[in-house]
Design brief:
The complex is a heterodimer of chains A (316) and B (264).
Chain A: H1 2-30, H2 38-54, H3 59-82, H4 88-106, E1 112-114, H5 120-128, H6 133-155, H7 159-169, H8 171-176, H9 181-208, E2 210-212, H10 219-234, H11 241-264, H12 273-315
Antiparallel strand pairs in A: 1-2
Helix pairs in contact in A: 1-6, 1-9, 1-10, 1-11, 2-3, 2-4, 2-9, 3-4, 3-9, 5-6, 6-11, 7-9, 10-11, 10-12
Chain B: E1 2-11, E2 19-29, E3 34-39, H1 45-53, E4 60-65, E5 68-69, H2 75-78, E6 82-85, H3 99-107, H4 121-134, H5 151-163, E7 169-173, H6 181-198, E8 202-205, H7 209-214, E9 218-223, E10 226-232, H8 233-237, H9 241-252, H10 257-263
Parallel strand pairs in B: 3-8, 3-9, 6-7, 7-8
Antiparallel strand pairs in B: 1-2, 1-4, 4-5, 9-10
The chains are: A mainly alpha (316), B alpha/beta (264).
């Protein structure tokens, strides 16, 4: 029973982080842009949400506004990269570091802002009459993820969406085909960071119950881990886009479940979370190399055996 | 239709590696011209195309297309008028997108992109017929990723992409140089077909002197950033490779002796 409960809470958490994962997927895979802005836009979404809900704003409206705030963060990174020609990683770091100050401003210099008014969590629990917190989170999380996947699937099928995908793969070709690659890069970064902030908003409401200025630390690694887990387990090259985005959601859930189960083992403390994440990502990233090495080893052994067999024939 | 007026382009200005590539380059192109460009390495052939397509902005000089001064137009703005095929087969396509998706991107070269569908059923029929004309069987593989195609097939697709919306000017930058001789000949044949059928104005850089003589109505030879020899019409048709080599040496005072091997 307790295993089932761990699984349920892992799934609930995973669904909020899945939205961040989808955001990371857009920049990292579609745009080929390792975007560290994420670490700042996640707490940005949470901060905006906490402060607004405490000020009496409707939680749903707060979610939408945090999405827009994330878009602004992505816009900043996009401008630094495209107009100022600052390399992707550095452009992201600059926005991220700036956002730390911005977030503290929004939270009136407090490291944590607890949400005191009614959040989307309480509202939905009252509405759906689900008494289990995690079950309620799962239901709402699935709805959010499904809507986001549907919208993105449609968007990336449009002319602008196709132009963004083309920009990520071949900028030279894109420009030769009349695509303004700068604009496409900025749009993709805005959508991505908007989703990350939205994820932060939902994490603050459903999971933490507060906004914490440091909650973004390591979030890019969590996002990448989930992307890679999703790809390794579920994706093949020819799958369609909606399927790939769904794989990202499952990647995030699996990642959260791994962490949740690892934390149940007594030798790990909650503070070991970051090193566990690093190990999982390092392992997942080196999987292709490990696979190749193993394949070569197998061929080598077969080769040696074959040679030995031929030698044996000669002697006989 | 296109005029380059005393165009200058240098690289690494102010360093010891400063290189003045295009020197007061003047070129006039008429509607329907098919120009082949030859010249040694570093003569400025590719730089000339890059200045025309907007990848480089010249330090001085003007680029006039159909009476519009496009000298300071950005690359994507000029794409409205230009079709381009690159030397590297990897450069002209998006490898992880399907053949039809690549064509759909090219189909929108001249249009403003919005939120309508990136590809429609009606277009797919156009792509099917156009691909069939290439004679490579690609019309049956429209949903294959372009990354799976060979270099020659990719160049053929890129050529189709460059011309699926009629360009005012087609720029071919040694687009057969990276292919094996047989494939190169096939792609060149396709090029000739497409250009003549649609009466496209074209500039083609080549390292193959025979091709330069046999194809097109004008031939220009570049050296040290400007045009040193130009021939067209009847005179061009009667040209021999040996004549070209002689011209090379005359124009460059024997400097070309070293390049000669490479060019023949």
């Amino acid at each position: 029973m307790s295993i089932l409960l761990t699984f349920l809470s892992g799934t609930a958490e995973g669904l909020w982080w899945a939205i961040l994962t989808i955001g990371v997927y857009i920049t990292y895979r579609l745009l080929d842009f390792a975007d560290l802005t994420v670490e700042g836009s996640l707490p940005l979404g949470a901060a905006v949400t906490a402060v607004m809900i405490n000020a009496g704003v409707n939680p749903i409206l707060a979610v939408l506004i945090s999405f827009l705030a994330g878009c602004a963060a992505g816009f900043s990174t996009g401008i630094l990269n495209t107009l100022c020609k600052i390399p992707p990683i550095l452009a992201g770091i600059l926005t991220m570091i700036a956002l730390y100050s911005v977030n503290l401003r929004i939270m009136s210099d407090k490291a944590t802002v607890t949400i005191t008014s009614e959040t989307l969590k309480e509202q939905t629990m009252n509405l759906l009459k689900i008494s289990n917190v995690n079950l309620n989170s799962v239901v709402i999380g699935v709805i959010f993820c499904a809507v986001i996947i549907a919208v993105l699937y449609l968007f990336f099928g449009t002319e602008i969406g196709a132009a963004i995908r083309a920009t990520g793969q071949n900028k030279n070709m894109s420009r030769a085909l009349g695509i303004n690659t700068n604009v496409m890069t900025v749009i993709a970064l805005m959508i991505s960071n908007g989703l990350v902030a939205l994820s932060g908003s939902l994490i603050a409401q459903f999971d933490y119950g507060s906004a914490i200025v440091t909650m973004g630390q390591g979030s890019i690694v969590i996002g990448l881990a989930s992307v890679i887990i999703g790809e390794v387990i579920f994706c093949h090259k020819d799958h369609n886009f909606a399927y790939k985005l769904s794989a990202m959601v499952f990647g995030a859930i699996i990642y959260r479940c791994i962490i949740a189960f690892a934390l149940r083992i007594n030798i790990f403390k909650a503070t070991d979370l970051k090193i566990m994440t690093a190990v999982i990502v390092a392992f997942a990233l080196s999987l292709p190399v490990i696979k190749e090495k193993l394949a070569i080893r197998k061929m080598k052994i077969a080769h040696i055996k074959e040679n030995a067999a031929q030698e044996g024939k000669k002697h006989a | 239709m296109l005029d380059l007026i005393s165009v200058n382009k240098s690289f690494n200005i102010g360093t010891v590696n400063e290189k003045h590539v295009l020197r007061n380059l003047n070129l006039h192109i008429d509607d329907g011209d098919f120009i082949t460009v030859i010249g040694g390495n570093g003569a400025g052939k590719s730089t000339m195309l890059n200045v025309i397509c907007g990848a480089y902005i010249p330090e001085s000089g003007k680029i006039i297309l159909d009476k519009t001064d496009i000298t300071y137009f950005s690359e994507w703005q000029r794409a409205k008028f230009l079709g381009r095929v690159f030397q590297d087969p990897m450069m002209g396509t998006a490898p992880n997108m399907q053949i039809e998706e690549n064509l759909a991107l090219a189909f929108r070269r001249t249009k403003r992109r919005g939120l309508s569908w990136g590809i429609t059923e009606r277009e797919k029929e156009i792509y099917h017929t156009s691909l069939a004309k290439l004679g490579l069987g690609l019309e049956n593989r429209m949903t294959s990723k372009v990354g799976l195609l060979s270099g020659g097939q990719r160049q053929a697709v890129t050529l189709l992409m460059a011309t699926i919306q009629r360009p005012r000017l087609l720029l071919l930058d040694e687009h057969t140089a990276a292919l094996d001789p047989k494939t190169a000949a096939k792609v060149l044949e396709l090029t000739n077909e497409i250009v003549t059928q649609n009466n496209l104005t074209t500039i083609m850089i080549t390292h193959n002197m025979k091709d330069a003589i046999n194809i097109g109505n004008r031939l220009i030879m570049m050296h040290e950033g400007h045009i040193i020899y130009e021939v067209s019409g009847e005179e061009k048709r009667n040209l021999q490779v040996s004549d070209l080599l002689k011209k090379f040496e005359e124009a460059s005072n024997g400097e070309f002796a070293n390049d000669r091997m490479m060019l023949s």
